[in-house]
Design goal:
Number of strands: 8
Number of helices: 5
Structural class: alpha+beta
Number of domains: 1
Order of helices and strands: HHEHHEEEEHEEE
Oligomer: single chain
Strand content: over 45%
Distance between the termini: 69 Å
Largest sheet: 8 strands, antiparallel, barrel
Radius of gyration: 34 Å
Shape: rod-shaped
């Protein structure tokens, strides 16, 4: 009886030792590594998005060229440089919501993802500014007269569409892929400008101020004007199920030109990777 019990105990100990070694089997170690593989982001993808942002438009000096053309070869432009007056039209800020979409391609190397994406947002960012200034010459100008001049300037811009072509660099962490991006931006805007200059002159300053003014005006409107600039930002894509993912990001866009514009937006979206 003792021999039987002892044999059973030895068998149990041997079986326990084998069970203790069981988790180290190569098959299980391979399964564990498979579970830690990064999520797959490689391939083409498309998606839709909504956004909210602010556009800061700087109208300072935006009408200088128009004023110079209006007053070309006049005494007041040659002697008083009216087109260069700092009218302090300043900056305006406009906040709006928008919607759009995106499409791109990701290449993946382990945890690192590099890609190229086209991104579009339709919104309605508006801004306008008006300013005026008056001066009287301290001495007679080249025509022998004193001049009292008043210049008024108005400008408005409406940005309706903007898109970016961006390069992306991301790092996979579980189901999350935070990323940075940068690229160039294109926009479509409706721009209107107007300038009014009145001139009074006489042999003395008093006579100039009392004279009947002569007024010159100019205006122009450009619809669907192309804007060119650059973009940069950061975001995170989150894998939900299969190829479906959610996105949250921040984008900064700068358009340069006669009206310098900065647009900052936060966006949320859904996409699908094929």
């Amino acid at each position: 009886m003792r021999r039987i019990v002892l044999a059973m105990m030895l068998a149990a100990v041997a079986q326990g030792a084998q069970a203790a070694d069981f988790p180290d089997l190569p098959v299980l170690r391979g399964s564990l590594r498979d579970g830690l593989r990064p999520a797959r982001w490689q391939g083409f993808y498309v998606g839709g998005q909504v956004g909210y942002g602010a556009a800061d438009m700087n109208f300072t000096g935006s009408n200088s060229a128009m004023t110079a053309r209006l007053l070309a070869n006049t005494v007041i432009e040659n002697d008083m440089q009216v087109s260069g007056w700092p009218l302090f039209m300043g900056r305006t800020s406009e906040r709006q919501t928008g919607y759009g979409g995106f499409a791109g391609y990701n290449g993946q190397w382990g945890d690192v993802v590099l890609g190229l994406e086209a991104n579009y947002l339709h919104a309605n960012f508006n801004g306008n500014s008006t300013a005026s200034a008056s001066r009287i010459s301290g001495a007679t100008l080249s025509d022998g007269q004193f001049h009292a001049v008043t210049a008024s300037s108005t400008a408005a811009m409406q940005i309706t569409d903007m898109g970016t072509i961006r390069g992306r660099a991301g790092y996979v962490y579980g189901s999350f892929m935070p990323y940075l991006f940068g690229g160039f931006a294109l926009g479509s805007a409706n721009i209107s400008k107007s300038v009014t200059v009145s001139d009074q002159w006489g042999p003395t300053q008093v006579d100039a101020l009392a004279a009947v003014p002569v007024t010159l005006t100019a205006s122009e409107t450009k619809n669907n004007q192309l804007l060119i600039g650059y973009s940069a930002g950061a975001g995170v894509d989150v894998l939900l199920a299969g190829g479906l993912f959610a996105r949250a990001e921040y984008e900064y866009v700068r358009f340069t030109g006669s009206i310098d514009t900065n647009i900052s937006t936060v966006r949320g979206g859904l996409g699908y990777r094929f």
